[in-house]
Amino acid sequence: MSETVKRYFEAFNAGDVQGMLDCLSEDVAHHVNEGQIRVGKEKFSEFCAHMNRCYNEHLTDMVVFEAEGGTRAAAEFIVNGTYLQTDSGLPEAHGQTYRLPAGSFFTLTDGKISRVTTFYNLADWVKQVSNG
């Protein structure tokens, strides 16, 4: 099942939202670092569109872990990004770059990702883009 997670991240790095959606179950639960849980592919797609307007990100130093039985996985990585457009409630964007450790946790059901939970240090990100 970690192959599904790897395909998901390959699609992310390629800017291929449809490729990411293809890895998700119809009722995927998307738990973001700061915010409400979004349920379903449509909500996930809307989130991706918003993120792509405000940020240009590429993930490196990826390590994917899989739990025995293949129903859960986790990934650790570095987010290398550029802040493109001011996001609501956050510092003003003017092309600042950032490098941020992050991680994601997954539940897999029938070969698809049914839960994505992502964590990063928002205070670290704010500090980086405020000093940039």
Automatic annotation (TrEMBL):
The SnoaL-like domain covers 5-115
Could you tell me which InterPro entries the record lists for this protein?
Answer: CHP02096 (IPR011721), NTF2-like_dom_sf (IPR032710), SnoaL-like (IPR037401)
NCBIfam families (UniProt xref): ketosteroid isomerase-related protein
Can you name this protein?
Nuclear transport factor 2 family protein
Q: Which organism is it from?
A: Ruegeria aquimaris
